[in-house]
Amino acid sequence: MYPIVRKEILSASVKLFDLKAPLVAAKAKAGQFFILRADEKGERIPLTIADFDREQGTITAIFQEIGAGTRLLGRLEAGDAVLDVVGPLGVPSEIERFDGPVAVVGGGVGIAPIYPIARALKEAGNRVIAIIGARNKELLFWEEKMAAVSDALIVCTDDGSYGRKGFVTDALKDLYEANKDLQRVWAIGPMPMMRAIANTTRPMGVPTIVSMNPLMLDGTGMCGACRVLVGGETKFACVDGPEFDGHLVDFDLALKRLAIYRDEEKRALAALEHHREGGRCGCH
Ligand SMILES: Cc1cc2nc3c(=O)[nH]c(=O)nc-3n(C[C@H](O)[C@H](O)[C@H](O)COP(=O)(O)OP(=O)(O)OC[C@H]3O[C@@H](n4cnc5c(N)ncnc54)[C@H](O)[C@@H]3O)c2cc1C
Ligand code: FES
Fold it and tell me: Molecular function terms in GO for this entry (predicted)?
């Protein structure tokens, strides 16, 4: 069992857990993820390692409650434990020292996985410009943590309730106008956001890394659930990624694949709500 040593509610639907997982914490690197199962009936949920503390033996996960699995997870409290944690999984981010500025862009819950990448880039001696964005002020988190590992931080909200009004892509365009020597962009967030960022940087000719979050099952490259098309080649996000060249990813296909189980997921969510209201549906 893997105890939850701290829980923080970052917004109505976004929760943070510090999990005691010393073996994962000992090896974790920026860009990697883990797969957890809350209990023996629970789904496998892949989550990015948003932070780690090797001395305490903890890893930090930040997750958005979107379906039945993450909603059940969000009901756990500090002192509870999850059944399995498998990781660290995936290829770590390629961190190097660049001659000019680099940008990291985190959208919504993507702010969590972009943080360790920003920190690693800063530690490697880069000039890091961070852009974080959310639909509104309530959904923003880790502004101070991001500021601490960046040379400049631009905060955007879609509705203008905080920071600059507008999308992260608008902020990135302005950033490029002021920094034509921009060397690289990392973008993590919802797939439509990562697609928009890749479409923005393609004409600029700035190499862009995105972190794909397809459906996953085994996390070992065996089941094929997480396949993505990159430059016409099939790749498995769990073992070849999750980071890929954003200019080569087939986002249209990736978005279609993400929607494959939408009806089943809706049914699972409805059953969960039914249980919460005290109903019996015989689904367990
Ligand atoms: C490598 C990796 C790292 C991830 N890191 C994080 C993270 O740090 N924080 C976080 O909140 N989420 C992260 N995710 C996404 C997270 O795993 C899913 O949100 C979760 O598995 C959904 O489970 P569920 O049972 O709650 O929802 P489901 O019932 O499975 O799905 C509900 C709805 O969400 C959509 N959906 C399902 N899976 C995904 C997905 N992978 N991405 C986007 N939409 C999806 C479905 O199409 C459906 O509409 C990551 C995914 C991957 C592959
Ligand atoms: S999750 Fe099964 S191949 Fe990647």
Answer: 2 iron, 2 sulfur cluster binding; flavin adenine dinucleotide binding; metal ion binding; oxidoreductase activity
User: Considering every ligand atom, which ligand is closest to the CA of 228?
Assistant: 2
Is 157 annotated as contributing to ligand binding?
no
Bridge partner list, 258: none
Angle at 259 between CA 237 and CA 173, to 5 degrees: 70
Torsion over CA: 47, 49, 52, 57 (sign) = positive
Closest CA to ligand 2's atom 3: 221
Question: Could you read off the pLDDT of 3-13 as tens digits, one per residue?
Answer: 999 999 988 88
215 C-alpha vs ligand 1 centroid, how far in Å?
7
pTM of the model: 0.89
> How many residues belong to the chain?
284
Same domain flag for 206 and 118: yes
* 15 CA to centre of ligand 2 in angstroms: 25
CATH number at residue 156: 3.40.50.80
How many structural domains comprise the chain?
A: 3
Q: SS3 of 64, please? A: strand
Cα of 69 from ligand 1 centre, angstroms: 9
Quickly count: other Cβ atoms within 10 Å of residue 127's Cβ.
18
* Domain range enclosing 267: 212-273
Is 83 in the same domain as 113?
no
Of 24, 56, 89, the one marking the end of a domain is 89
Q: Is the CB of 223 under 6 A from ligand 2?
A: yes
Tell me the C-alpha distance between 207 and 143, whole Å: 25
Ligand 1: residues with CB < 6 A are: 33, 43, 45-48, 62-64, 66-70, 109, 112-113, 213-216, 242, 258-259, 262, 265, 268
Tell me how far apart the alpha carbons of residues 44 and 62 are, in angstroms, rounded to a whole number: 16
